[in-house]
Write the structure tokens for this entry.
Amino acid sequence: MQSIRLAREGGRTIDWRAARPGDLLDVQMWMADARGLLDAGVTLVTGTDMTTVTDPDHGEELILEIEGHVEIGMTPLAAIRAATTDGARNLRLDGVTGCVREGLAADLLVVEGAPDRDIHALRRPVLVVRQGQPIAPTRLAEPTLRLPVVDAA
């Protein structure tokens, strides 16, 4: 996801719809493949293979991936579930974490706004709780590509 940020910061437009079989593997192809998997009914989950050697900011990378899922057609709430409930289920940790429920481990991110409608609200934290301890949140820059706000159901 760092490659999405770097491409957009460099002024590059990423159009996953333009990716074709045989194209070089890049962000555009990743997004097209992810959309194809989504269309085929595959449950997508978020995660990163980033290391602290290349980029220590895993939080922003995760948010970029969640935004990428919305960009390819997931609802904001489905993209959040891909990073929480679905991710825990995929790792067979759904009895341990993945949602806020009594008896489960949960780190919390409280944000300004409604991330189930506006995924970019994840960039505006007001409180982070990690392992039961409050942590001063870091507000992230607004994205170079604004995704639409979903109407409340």
The first strand starts at residue 108 and ends at 111. Strands lie at 108-111, 125-130, 133-135. The chain has a mean pLDDT of 82.
